[in-house]
biotin carboxylase (Micromonospora radicis), 445 residues
Amino acid sequence: MIESLLVANRGEIARRIIRTAKRLGVRAIAVHSEADADLPFVVEADESVCVGPANPAQSYRNTEAILAAAKSTGAQAIHPGYGFLSENADFARTVEASGLVWVGPGADAISAMGDKINARNLMAAAGVPVAPGTTEPAADLAAAITAAAEIGYPVMVKAAAGGGGMGMGVAVDEAALCTEYDKVRAFAERMFGDGSVLIERYFPRVRHVEVQILGLADGRVVALGERECSVQRRNQKLVEESPSPAVSPELRSRLLAAAVRAGEAVGYRNAGTVECLLDPGTGEFFFLEMNTRLQVEHPVTELVYGLDLVEEQLRVAAGLAPTFDPDALTPRGHAIELRVNAEDPKRFLPGPGVIKTWVEPTGEGVRVDSGYVEGNTVTPFYDSLMAKVIVSAPSRAEAIERARAAVAGFALAGPKNNLPFFAELLDNPEFVSGDYDTALITRMR
Protein backbone atom coordinates (compact mmCIF):
# COMPACT_ATOMS: atom_id res chain seq x y z
CA MET A 1 0.00 0.00 0.00
CA ILE A 2 1.05 3.59 -0.61
CA GLU A 3 2.68 5.03 2.53
CA SER A 4 2.10 8.78 2.06
CA LEU A 5 -0.54 10.60 0.04
CA LEU A 6 -0.83 14.25 -0.94
CA VAL A 7 -4.42 15.32 -1.60
CA ALA A 8 -4.46 17.98 -4.31
CA ASN A 9 -7.90 19.30 -3.49
CA ARG A 10 -9.98 21.00 -0.81
CA GLY A 11 -13.22 20.88 1.14
CA GLU A 12 -15.36 17.80 1.57
CA ILE A 13 -13.56 15.63 -0.99
CA ALA A 14 -10.13 16.34 0.52
CA ARG A 15 -11.51 15.55 3.97
CA ARG A 16 -13.15 12.37 2.70
CA ILE A 17 -9.91 11.13 1.04
CA ILE A 18 -7.90 11.98 4.15
CA ARG A 19 -10.33 9.97 6.27
CA THR A 20 -9.74 6.81 4.24
CA ALA A 21 -5.98 7.38 4.05
CA LYS A 22 -5.69 7.64 7.83
CA ARG A 23 -7.86 4.54 8.33
CA LEU A 24 -5.42 2.63 6.15
CA GLY A 25 -2.37 3.99 7.98
CA VAL A 26 -1.35 6.17 5.04
CA ARG A 27 0.20 9.53 5.97
CA ALA A 28 -2.20 12.18 4.66
CA ILE A 29 -0.85 15.50 3.39
CA ALA A 30 -3.13 18.44 2.61
CA VAL A 31 -2.42 21.41 0.39
CA HIS A 32 -4.50 24.50 0.93
CA SER A 33 -4.97 28.10 -0.11
CA GLU A 34 -4.65 30.99 2.32
CA ALA A 35 -8.45 31.24 2.38
CA ASP A 36 -8.86 27.61 3.48
CA ALA A 37 -6.25 27.50 6.25
CA ASP A 38 -8.76 26.77 9.06
CA LEU A 39 -11.00 24.25 7.28
CA PRO A 40 -11.36 20.71 8.71
CA PHE A 41 -9.43 18.96 5.93
CA VAL A 42 -6.34 21.00 6.81
CA VAL A 43 -6.70 20.41 10.55
CA GLU A 44 -7.30 16.66 10.13
CA ALA A 45 -4.37 15.98 7.78
CA ASP A 46 -1.11 14.66 9.22
CA GLU A 47 0.71 17.50 7.49
CA SER A 48 -0.35 20.54 5.47
CA VAL A 49 1.25 23.00 3.06
CA CYS A 50 -0.09 26.38 1.92
CA VAL A 51 0.27 26.54 -1.85
CA GLY A 52 -0.93 30.07 -2.55
CA PRO A 53 -3.68 32.67 -2.27
CA ALA A 54 -7.41 32.13 -2.67
CA ASN A 55 -7.40 32.30 -6.48
CA PRO A 56 -7.45 28.63 -7.62
CA ALA A 57 -5.06 29.38 -10.49
CA GLN A 58 -2.49 30.40 -7.89
CA SER A 59 -3.18 27.55 -5.46
CA TYR A 60 -5.22 24.43 -6.28
CA ARG A 61 -4.38 24.63 -10.00
CA ASN A 62 -0.80 25.71 -9.38
CA THR A 63 1.01 22.58 -10.55
CA GLU A 64 4.47 23.83 -9.60
CA ALA A 65 3.41 24.66 -6.04
CA ILE A 66 1.64 21.32 -5.61
CA LEU A 67 4.60 19.32 -6.91
CA ALA A 68 6.93 21.34 -4.68
CA ALA A 69 4.68 20.50 -1.72
CA ALA A 70 4.82 16.81 -2.61
CA LYS A 71 8.61 16.94 -2.76
CA SER A 72 9.06 18.88 0.47
CA THR A 73 6.78 16.53 2.43
CA GLY A 74 8.12 13.31 0.94
CA ALA A 75 4.75 12.33 -0.52
CA GLN A 76 4.73 9.08 -2.45
CA ALA A 77 1.46 9.64 -4.32
CA ILE A 78 -1.00 12.36 -5.34
CA HIS A 79 -4.79 12.03 -5.29
CA PRO A 80 -6.49 14.85 -7.26
CA GLY A 81 -10.08 14.36 -6.02
CA TYR A 82 -12.54 15.91 -8.49
CA GLY A 83 -12.37 19.25 -10.29
CA PHE A 84 -9.21 21.39 -10.34
CA LEU A 85 -6.39 19.19 -11.78
CA SER A 86 -8.19 15.83 -11.65
CA GLU A 87 -8.74 15.61 -15.42
CA ASN A 88 -5.58 17.43 -16.49
CA ALA A 89 -3.60 14.91 -18.55
CA ASP A 90 -0.47 17.08 -18.57
CA PHE A 91 -0.48 17.22 -14.77
CA ALA A 92 -0.94 13.44 -14.55
CA ARG A 93 2.05 12.94 -16.86
CA THR A 94 4.14 15.40 -14.85
CA VAL A 95 3.28 13.65 -11.59
CA GLU A 96 4.39 10.28 -12.95
CA ALA A 97 7.48 11.77 -14.62
CA SER A 98 8.43 13.13 -11.21
CA GLY A 99 8.49 9.60 -9.83
CA LEU A 100 5.21 9.96 -7.92
CA VAL A 101 2.18 7.66 -8.05
CA TRP A 102 -0.88 9.19 -9.75
CA VAL A 103 -4.09 7.98 -8.12
CA GLY A 104 -6.26 8.05 -11.21
CA PRO A 105 -6.42 6.79 -14.79
CA GLY A 106 -3.45 7.07 -17.13
CA ALA A 107 -2.81 10.37 -18.87
CA ASP A 108 -3.62 8.83 -22.26
CA ALA A 109 -7.09 7.80 -21.08
CA ILE A 110 -7.68 11.27 -19.64
CA SER A 111 -6.66 12.83 -22.97
CA ALA A 112 -8.77 10.42 -25.01
CA MET A 113 -11.92 11.12 -23.03
CA GLY A 114 -11.30 14.81 -22.34
CA ASP A 115 -12.49 15.90 -25.78
CA LYS A 116 -16.17 15.09 -26.20
CA ILE A 117 -15.97 14.65 -29.97
CA ASN A 118 -12.97 12.33 -29.79
CA ALA A 119 -14.67 10.43 -26.96
CA ARG A 120 -17.88 10.05 -28.99
CA ASN A 121 -15.95 8.67 -31.94
CA LEU A 122 -13.99 6.23 -29.77
CA MET A 123 -17.16 4.99 -28.10
CA ALA A 124 -18.97 4.54 -31.41
CA ALA A 125 -16.04 2.46 -32.67
CA ALA A 126 -16.23 0.34 -29.50
CA GLY A 127 -19.93 -0.37 -30.02
CA VAL A 128 -21.19 1.99 -27.33
CA PRO A 129 -24.41 3.81 -28.41
CA VAL A 130 -23.92 7.52 -29.12
CA ALA A 131 -26.54 10.15 -29.92
CA PRO A 132 -26.66 11.56 -33.45
CA GLY A 133 -24.10 14.36 -33.66
CA THR A 134 -20.99 15.74 -35.30
CA THR A 135 -17.86 13.59 -35.63
CA GLU A 136 -15.62 16.65 -35.81
CA PRO A 137 -15.85 20.19 -34.41
CA ALA A 138 -18.23 22.62 -36.10
CA ALA A 139 -15.51 24.94 -37.38
CA ASP A 140 -17.81 27.92 -37.82
CA LEU A 141 -21.46 28.91 -37.62
CA ALA A 142 -22.15 27.79 -41.19
CA ALA A 143 -20.86 24.30 -40.35
CA ALA A 144 -23.00 24.26 -37.21
CA ILE A 145 -26.12 25.23 -39.20
CA THR A 146 -25.45 22.48 -41.74
CA ALA A 147 -24.90 19.89 -38.99
CA ALA A 148 -28.05 20.92 -37.12
CA ALA A 149 -30.13 20.63 -40.29
CA GLU A 150 -28.87 17.08 -40.81
CA ILE A 151 -29.37 16.05 -37.17
CA GLY A 152 -32.74 17.76 -36.81
CA TYR A 153 -33.82 20.36 -34.25
CA PRO A 154 -33.74 20.73 -31.31
CA VAL A 155 -29.96 20.34 -30.90
CA MET A 156 -27.55 20.65 -28.01
CA VAL A 157 -24.60 22.97 -28.60
CA LYS A 158 -21.72 21.77 -26.41
CA ALA A 159 -18.14 22.71 -25.66
CA ALA A 160 -15.99 19.80 -26.85
CA ALA A 161 -13.56 20.37 -23.98
CA GLY A 162 -14.44 20.62 -20.31
CA GLY A 163 -17.11 18.71 -18.46
CA GLY A 164 -19.43 18.72 -15.48
CA GLY A 165 -22.35 20.17 -17.43
CA MET A 166 -20.49 23.37 -18.28
CA GLY A 167 -20.62 25.02 -21.71
CA MET A 168 -23.96 23.85 -23.07
CA GLY A 169 -26.93 25.44 -24.81
CA VAL A 170 -30.12 24.23 -26.49
CA ALA A 171 -31.18 25.51 -29.92
CA VAL A 172 -34.73 24.89 -31.10
CA ASP A 173 -34.21 26.54 -34.49
CA GLU A 174 -31.58 28.22 -36.64
CA ALA A 175 -31.99 31.63 -34.99
CA ALA A 176 -31.38 30.13 -31.56
CA LEU A 177 -28.42 28.17 -32.92
CA CYS A 178 -26.74 31.40 -34.06
CA THR A 179 -26.99 32.78 -30.54
CA GLU A 180 -26.03 29.59 -28.69
CA TYR A 181 -23.09 28.78 -30.98
CA ASP A 182 -21.38 32.11 -30.31
CA LYS A 183 -22.18 31.93 -26.60
CA VAL A 184 -20.86 28.39 -26.11
CA ARG A 185 -17.77 29.01 -28.22
CA ALA A 186 -16.86 32.14 -26.25
CA PHE A 187 -17.45 30.35 -22.94
CA ALA A 188 -15.33 27.37 -24.01
CA GLU A 189 -12.44 29.57 -25.08
CA ARG A 190 -12.56 31.47 -21.81
CA MET A 191 -12.98 28.49 -19.48
CA PHE A 192 -11.14 25.68 -21.24
CA GLY A 193 -8.82 27.46 -23.67
CA ASP A 194 -10.48 25.49 -26.48
CA GLY A 195 -13.41 26.90 -28.46
CA SER A 196 -14.28 23.65 -30.24
CA VAL A 197 -18.04 23.08 -30.45
CA LEU A 198 -20.03 19.86 -30.82
CA ILE A 199 -23.58 19.70 -32.21
CA GLU A 200 -25.69 16.83 -30.90
CA ARG A 201 -29.35 15.86 -30.89
CA TYR A 202 -31.23 17.24 -27.92
CA PHE A 203 -33.81 15.06 -26.19
CA PRO A 204 -36.54 17.17 -24.53
CA ARG A 205 -37.42 14.42 -22.05
CA VAL A 206 -34.41 12.48 -20.93
CA ARG A 207 -32.87 10.98 -17.81
CA HIS A 208 -29.22 11.27 -16.84
CA VAL A 209 -27.90 7.87 -15.77
CA GLU A 210 -24.25 7.03 -15.18
CA VAL A 211 -22.25 3.88 -14.46
CA GLN A 212 -19.40 3.67 -11.96
CA ILE A 213 -16.50 1.72 -13.42
CA LEU A 214 -13.24 0.61 -11.85
CA GLY A 215 -10.25 -0.40 -13.94
CA LEU A 216 -8.35 -2.95 -11.86
CA ALA A 217 -4.59 -3.39 -11.57
CA ASP A 218 -4.80 -6.68 -13.50
CA GLY A 219 -6.34 -4.97 -16.54
CA ARG A 220 -9.97 -5.90 -16.01
CA VAL A 221 -12.72 -3.27 -16.00
CA VAL A 222 -15.71 -3.83 -13.72
CA ALA A 223 -18.99 -1.94 -13.44
CA LEU A 224 -20.30 -1.05 -9.97
CA GLY A 225 -23.91 -0.37 -10.85
CA GLU A 226 -25.62 2.77 -12.06
CA ARG A 227 -26.61 6.10 -10.51
CA GLU A 228 -29.60 8.28 -11.38
CA CYS A 229 -28.53 11.93 -11.69
CA SER A 230 -31.56 13.63 -13.27
CA VAL A 231 -32.30 16.18 -10.53
CA GLN A 232 -30.30 19.06 -12.01
CA ARG A 233 -30.28 22.84 -12.19
CA ARG A 234 -28.38 24.46 -15.06
CA ASN A 235 -27.08 21.01 -16.07
CA GLN A 236 -25.52 20.67 -12.60
CA LYS A 237 -26.52 17.74 -10.39
CA LEU A 238 -28.18 18.28 -7.01
CA VAL A 239 -29.43 14.78 -6.14
CA GLU A 240 -28.21 11.31 -7.07
CA GLU A 241 -29.53 7.87 -6.23
CA SER A 242 -28.62 4.25 -6.80
CA PRO A 243 -30.00 2.12 -8.26
CA SER A 244 -31.92 4.18 -10.81
CA PRO A 245 -35.70 3.75 -10.53
CA ALA A 246 -35.84 3.94 -14.34
CA VAL A 247 -33.53 1.00 -15.05
CA SER A 248 -34.92 -2.51 -15.43
CA PRO A 249 -32.72 -5.60 -14.97
CA GLU A 250 -32.53 -6.04 -18.76
CA LEU A 251 -31.59 -2.40 -19.35
CA ARG A 252 -29.09 -2.55 -16.48
CA SER A 253 -27.35 -5.49 -18.12
CA ARG A 254 -26.98 -3.55 -21.39
CA LEU A 255 -25.97 -0.34 -19.68
CA LEU A 256 -23.26 -1.91 -17.53
CA ALA A 257 -21.90 -3.96 -20.43
CA ALA A 258 -21.60 -0.80 -22.56
CA ALA A 259 -19.78 1.00 -19.73
CA VAL A 260 -17.28 -1.83 -19.43
CA ARG A 261 -16.67 -1.71 -23.20
CA ALA A 262 -16.11 2.04 -22.89
CA GLY A 263 -13.46 1.52 -20.23
CA GLU A 264 -11.79 -1.30 -22.11
CA ALA A 265 -11.61 0.81 -25.28
CA VAL A 266 -9.17 3.21 -23.60
CA GLY A 267 -7.37 0.73 -21.33
CA TYR A 268 -8.95 2.36 -18.30
CA ARG A 269 -7.44 2.02 -14.84
CA ASN A 270 -8.76 3.32 -11.52
CA ALA A 271 -12.17 4.89 -10.86
CA GLY A 272 -14.22 6.56 -13.58
CA THR A 273 -17.78 7.20 -14.64
CA VAL A 274 -19.52 6.59 -17.95
CA GLU A 275 -22.37 9.09 -18.24
CA CYS A 276 -25.37 8.36 -20.46
CA LEU A 277 -28.64 9.92 -21.54
CA LEU A 278 -31.62 7.58 -21.20
CA ASP A 279 -34.81 7.99 -23.21
CA PRO A 280 -37.43 6.80 -20.70
CA GLY A 281 -39.97 6.23 -23.44
CA THR A 282 -37.91 3.83 -25.56
CA GLY A 283 -35.31 2.51 -23.13
CA GLU A 284 -32.56 3.68 -25.50
CA PHE A 285 -29.43 5.12 -23.94
CA PHE A 286 -26.60 7.13 -25.45
CA PHE A 287 -23.06 7.83 -24.32
CA LEU A 288 -22.68 11.38 -23.00
CA GLU A 289 -19.14 11.58 -21.65
CA MET A 290 -16.66 9.81 -19.41
CA ASN A 291 -15.47 11.48 -16.22
CA THR A 292 -11.92 10.26 -15.66
CA ARG A 293 -11.93 10.78 -11.89
CA LEU A 294 -13.86 10.09 -8.72
CA GLN A 295 -17.35 11.59 -8.88
CA VAL A 296 -18.98 13.84 -6.28
CA GLU A 297 -21.76 11.27 -6.00
CA HIS A 298 -19.56 8.22 -5.40
CA PRO A 299 -20.95 7.64 -1.84
CA VAL A 300 -24.26 6.23 -3.10
CA THR A 301 -22.35 3.49 -4.91
CA GLU A 302 -20.27 2.85 -1.79
CA LEU A 303 -23.37 2.39 0.35
CA VAL A 304 -25.14 0.10 -2.11
CA TYR A 305 -22.06 -2.07 -2.71
CA GLY A 306 -20.56 -1.88 0.78
CA LEU A 307 -17.11 -0.69 -0.24
CA ASP A 308 -14.79 2.32 -0.06
CA LEU A 309 -14.01 3.65 -3.53
CA VAL A 310 -11.08 5.75 -2.32
CA GLU A 311 -9.52 2.65 -0.82
CA GLU A 312 -10.08 0.81 -4.11
CA GLN A 313 -8.43 3.72 -5.96
CA LEU A 314 -5.39 3.53 -3.71
CA ARG A 315 -5.16 -0.24 -4.16
CA VAL A 316 -5.30 0.02 -7.95
CA ALA A 317 -2.66 2.77 -7.93
CA ALA A 318 -0.45 0.55 -5.75
CA GLY A 319 -0.91 -2.43 -8.08
CA LEU A 320 -2.97 -4.38 -5.55
CA ALA A 321 -6.09 -6.49 -6.01
CA PRO A 322 -9.45 -4.99 -4.94
CA THR A 323 -11.00 -5.74 -1.56
CA PHE A 324 -13.97 -7.39 -3.29
CA ASP A 325 -14.49 -10.29 -5.66
CA PRO A 326 -15.15 -8.75 -9.11
CA ASP A 327 -17.15 -11.83 -10.08
CA ALA A 328 -19.47 -11.70 -7.07
CA LEU A 329 -20.64 -8.09 -6.81
CA THR A 330 -23.96 -7.87 -4.99
CA PRO A 331 -25.76 -4.53 -4.58
CA ARG A 332 -28.06 -4.15 -1.59
CA GLY A 333 -30.77 -1.62 -0.85
CA HIS A 334 -31.05 1.96 -2.05
CA ALA A 335 -29.03 5.14 -1.45
CA ILE A 336 -29.76 8.83 -2.09
CA GLU A 337 -27.35 11.78 -1.97
CA LEU A 338 -28.32 15.42 -1.50
CA ARG A 339 -25.76 18.14 -2.25
CA VAL A 340 -26.05 20.83 0.38
CA ASN A 341 -24.86 24.02 -1.29
CA ALA A 342 -24.39 27.59 -0.10
CA GLU A 343 -27.07 28.91 -2.44
CA ASP A 344 -30.62 30.13 -2.18
CA PRO A 345 -33.26 27.40 -2.57
CA LYS A 346 -35.31 29.18 -5.23
CA ARG A 347 -32.95 30.58 -7.87
CA PHE A 348 -29.90 28.57 -6.77
CA LEU A 349 -27.64 31.62 -6.73
CA PRO A 350 -24.53 31.48 -4.48
CA GLY A 351 -24.87 32.85 -0.95
CA PRO A 352 -21.55 32.46 0.91
CA GLY A 353 -20.99 33.59 4.48
CA VAL A 354 -19.91 32.69 8.01
CA ILE A 355 -21.42 29.47 9.39
CA LYS A 356 -23.16 30.44 12.62
CA THR A 357 -24.89 27.10 13.23
CA TRP A 358 -23.83 23.70 11.92
CA VAL A 359 -25.31 20.54 13.43
CA GLU A 360 -25.25 17.54 11.11
CA PRO A 361 -28.08 14.99 11.11
CA THR A 362 -27.51 11.54 12.58
CA GLY A 363 -29.43 8.29 12.67
CA GLU A 364 -29.57 4.86 11.10
CA GLY A 365 -28.51 4.89 7.47
CA VAL A 366 -27.40 8.55 7.54
CA ARG A 367 -23.92 9.63 6.40
CA VAL A 368 -22.68 13.20 6.04
CA ASP A 369 -19.55 14.07 4.04
CA SER A 370 -18.89 17.71 4.90
CA GLY A 371 -16.20 20.27 4.27
CA TYR A 372 -17.05 22.71 7.04
CA VAL A 373 -17.82 23.06 10.73
CA GLU A 374 -19.43 25.80 12.76
CA GLY A 375 -17.40 28.99 12.68
CA ASN A 376 -15.89 28.38 9.24
CA THR A 377 -16.50 30.80 6.38
CA VAL A 378 -17.86 29.66 3.02
CA THR A 379 -15.95 31.96 0.67
CA PRO A 380 -16.96 32.98 -2.87
CA PHE A 381 -13.73 31.66 -4.38
CA TYR A 382 -14.78 28.03 -4.87
CA ASP A 383 -17.70 25.74 -5.57
CA SER A 384 -20.67 26.30 -3.25
CA LEU A 385 -20.82 22.66 -2.05
CA MET A 386 -20.73 22.53 1.76
CA ALA A 387 -21.76 18.95 2.48
CA LYS A 388 -23.35 15.83 1.08
CA VAL A 389 -26.13 14.12 3.00
CA ILE A 390 -26.26 10.47 1.96
CA VAL A 391 -28.87 8.05 3.22
CA SER A 392 -29.28 4.32 2.67
CA ALA A 393 -32.09 1.89 3.42
CA PRO A 394 -33.42 -1.49 2.26
CA SER A 395 -35.87 0.19 -0.17
CA ARG A 396 -36.22 3.47 -2.07
CA ALA A 397 -39.32 4.43 -0.08
CA GLU A 398 -37.45 3.96 3.20
CA ALA A 399 -34.46 5.89 1.84
CA ILE A 400 -36.74 8.83 1.01
CA GLU A 401 -38.15 8.75 4.56
CA ARG A 402 -34.64 8.80 6.01
CA ALA A 403 -33.68 11.65 3.66
CA ARG A 404 -36.67 13.68 4.86
CA ALA A 405 -35.64 13.15 8.49
CA ALA A 406 -32.01 14.01 7.72
CA VAL A 407 -32.96 17.27 5.98
CA ALA A 408 -35.21 18.24 8.88
CA GLY A 409 -32.42 17.36 11.32
CA PHE A 410 -29.68 19.43 9.65
CA ALA A 411 -29.37 22.69 11.63
CA LEU A 412 -27.57 25.18 9.38
CA ALA A 413 -27.47 28.96 9.63
CA GLY A 414 -25.30 31.69 8.18
CA PRO A 415 -24.77 31.08 4.47
CA LYS A 416 -27.82 30.63 2.28
CA ASN A 417 -28.54 26.95 1.76
CA ASN A 418 -30.74 24.68 -0.33
CA LEU A 419 -32.09 22.46 2.46
CA PRO A 420 -35.61 23.94 1.97
CA PHE A 421 -35.47 22.84 -1.67
CA PHE A 422 -34.69 19.27 -0.64
CA ALA A 423 -37.63 19.27 1.77
CA GLU A 424 -39.82 20.31 -1.14
CA LEU A 425 -38.29 17.77 -3.55
CA LEU A 426 -38.67 14.82 -1.19
CA ASP A 427 -42.42 15.47 -1.08
CA ASN A 428 -42.73 16.06 -4.83
CA PRO A 429 -45.02 13.40 -6.38
CA GLU A 430 -42.85 13.02 -9.49
CA PHE A 431 -39.68 12.42 -7.50
CA VAL A 432 -41.39 10.14 -5.01
CA SER A 433 -42.84 8.04 -7.85
CA GLY A 434 -39.40 7.68 -9.44
CA ASP A 435 -40.84 8.77 -12.78
CA TYR A 436 -38.95 12.02 -13.35
CA ASP A 437 -36.43 13.49 -15.78
CA THR A 438 -33.85 16.29 -16.09
CA ALA A 439 -36.57 18.95 -16.40
CA LEU A 440 -38.02 18.21 -12.96
CA ILE A 441 -36.62 21.30 -11.26
CA THR A 442 -37.81 23.48 -14.14
CA ARG A 443 -41.33 22.18 -13.58
CA MET A 444 -41.03 22.72 -9.85
CA ARG A 445 -39.96 26.33 -10.34
Q: What stands out?
A: Residues 207-444 form a domain with the D-amino Acid Aminotransferase; Chain A, domain 1 fold (CATH 3.30.470.20). The chain has a mean pLDDT of 96.
